[in-house]
Amino acid sequence: MNADAKLSQSDMEALQSRKQAIAARWYDAIAPAIAELNAGEVKSQLTEWTSQAILFLSTDSLERGVARAIGEGLARDISAQPLVLGKTQEALAHQITSQLPADQALALLPRLIGLLTEIAVGFAEEQSKHVKTMRRKFLSTTSHDMRSPLNAIIGFSRIMAKGVDGPVTDLQTQDLGTIHDSGRALLKMIDDVFNIDKIKADSVELDLKAFILADVINSAIEAVRPLIDENDNFLEARHGELPGQIRSDPAKIKQILVNLLSRAATTTKQGTVTLNVSYSVGSGTDWLRFQISDTGLGMTPAQIERFAAAGSPETLQYDDITLMVSQRLCQLLGGEITVESETNKGSTFTFRLPIRPTGR
């Protein structure tokens, strides 16, 4: 019998008769890897998966989708821990080939390798889904738990500074202003950190819909107006003829604009921040071009280099995180951000986005 030969009918019957024993030994290999198991339910699942595996081994072509479903079921219904997969593959290989003559084991080996490979692929895909789901839940819960007390600190410090709860001295007003500003800065930092974590976890989803571009631009400008005024800057917004409604993700576009305008506003004092928006019609794709310029501190060569390497978040410093979030969001929308900057002379960030005007 050569390695490519089918298993004989008697070999298959022998494997089927050992199905319960194979499933039981499979269970014994998995059980030590996880803390709690419903033994009856898991053994029933393993018996069913063993039946499917044995059926695949007797066929000329492996049904990859069904084989991967075994791995997906193992990760979803029993445990998504990598140790379980390792134990499972070792156990399954041993269970199926044990007590078979050498020539029969040799005939089984190619199909067994294919089966275990597809099970591993299915397990890994389901494990990845599990990790992303758990990470998304963690980010959502933790973000909410951290924002709530911070918003209270920011809100009450503002109320107290206005004298709503009674008169305050000039020194107390100054201290409350520091508390308020520090709370806002910490809230912004939390937003940036969680945004970068969501991006790294590939859990950022686009919400594509029709909207009026001018409304998004005006909303972004109003969001950064306090920062502009705080540093005695002048904001100039210019644009030519823009399309009415377009289809994209308005929240992501606004976030990019707010991030870049906020950076320009905080690095510039008694200067000018300029927003230029233009629109061009291409042969197959229309493009929006946003350019945010300032007359502020500019960027050092090291900062520009880190921004260019935004694909490696571990190399970034906190000041770079907002830029990286903006770059990744822009890339998700099909565009990219570029920067020209000179220390103490200002910076110009430019990003282009493909759009689809509605009604065309």
Describe the structure.
- With 360 residues, the protein is an alpha+beta fold.
- The protein has 3 domains: 9-131; 136-200; 209-357, Heat Shock Protein 90.
- It has 11 helices and 7 strands.
- Strands 1, 2, 3, 4, 5, 6 and 7 form a 7-stranded mixed sheet that branches.
- Strand 6 and strand 7 (346-357) form a beta hairpin.
- Helix 2 (19-30) crosses helix 3, helix 6 runs antiparallel to helix 7 and helix 7 packs across helix 11 (318-332).
- The chain is elongated, with a radius of gyration of 30 Å.
Number of domains: 3
Order of helices and strands: HHHHHHHEHEEHEEHHEE
The protein's oligomeric status is single chain
Secondary structure class reads alpha+beta
| Architecture per CATH nomenclature, i.e. the level-2 architecture of the largest domain | 2-Layer Sandwich
Global shape? elongated
* CATH fold assignment of the largest domain: Heat Shock Protein 90
Number of helices: 11
Number of strands: 7
What is the beta-strand fraction? 5-15%
Distance between the termini: 66 Å
The CATH class label of the largest domain is Alpha Beta
Over the alpha carbons, how many angstroms does the gyration radius reach? Answer: 30 Å
In percent, how helical is the residue content? Answer: 55-70%
**What would CATH call the homologous superfamily of the largest domain?**
Histidine kinase-like ATPase, C-terminal domain
The low-pLDDT segments are 1-5
- What's the overall average pLDDT, rounded? 81
Biggest sheet record: 7 strands, mixed
